[in-house]
Amino acid sequence: MQRYFNTEGQCEPKKHYMVRLDDRLEKIKRLFVDRGKYFIINRGRQYGKTTTLRLLAEFLKDDYVILSMDFQMMSSANFADEQTFVISFMEYVERVLSAKKDTIEGLSTEAFQNLLSLKKEERISMDKMFCALSEICQIAKKPVVLMIDEVDSASNYRVFLDFLAMLRGYYLDRENSPIFQSVILAGVYDIKNLKLKIRSEEEYQYNSPWNIAARFHIDMSFTAVQIASMLEEYEQDNHTGMNVEEMARCIYDYTSGYPYLVSAICKFLDEEIPEMAGFEDMGTVWTKEGIRQAVKILLNENTPLFDSMVKQLDTFKDLKELIEQLLYRGRRILFSPAEKSLNLGLMFGYFKDDNGRITIAVFLRCIC
Known about the structure:
Layout: H1 22-33, E1 38-42, H2 49-60, E2 65-70, H3 82-99, H4 101-104, H5 109-117, H6 126-139, E3 144-149, H7 158-172, E4 182-187, H8 201-206, H9 224-238, H10 244-255, H11 259-271, H12 282-285, H13 288-300, H14 304-315, H15 317-328, E5 333-334, H16 340-348, E6 351-354, E7 357-360, H17 362-367
Parallel strand pairs: 1-4, 2-3, 3-4
Antiparallel strand pairs: 5-7, 6-7
């Protein structure tokens, strides 16, 4: 099967040209999972979070039992109350484990059945579920890692806060009550920054049930070197004669390494630019002029990513004001971890931290 550049959904190495993430995965394993950290991967939309989680699950499976979930697969009705959530969560766990033979073989069958047997009880609660999960983790053949993608979809429900609070309790008491080796949540927002309907923002920020989370400081954007490694693979298959390093640097300069934008430009170069006048062969496509044309196509399209980014500026007025100061007033801003708007801008991919000084991502200048 001929590989191609993918911008729809997760990327798979066997199907798509993509930046190899082995170094990043090894770093996450060494700095976070092996050390038993609970952490949140929060980045802007189409930043490669789901792809990273899927690859990480594969990367970890020899050393850990991986329980991988996606809260998009749970409807709002599943969060109606504690009993409903507990049953839905256990049914989801059953589906996940039943579908992965290698995963379920790493667990005690008896402990797993004890968890499922709770569904037969007339009244079940969160604490009973966690007792059963603790038993599973205690006697599993390998440490158990819990991954939950798209946690944003659950963040306005009180029962989800109860779930996080109990995770926190077990984490703090894990010497006496074994639980997951590591918990990884992924979503657009850092949970600490969410405005929850059920609590005031101030109360939630300073009394978070997730204040045990380790700071996830690994850069999820691509470097020019990483983009070049992807283009090298493409060049080996297609023999365009491009200057790989020059093309990688040019793509990076336009995108600031935002994963979706990198893939989109490459996709246009591979599929659409060859049909345009003036590009008689692939050697003329993979040039700076070809990249400029690909960027024009990208900016002229009704891209959901750009719509989402502009919408965030309407939602977060302080962030919009900060961007206007940087773009139109030439203000120089130093990074401060206490400044919420700066953290939001970095999270959404609007800003880059350039050795302690905040700079605007190049593509944002084009859409603002």
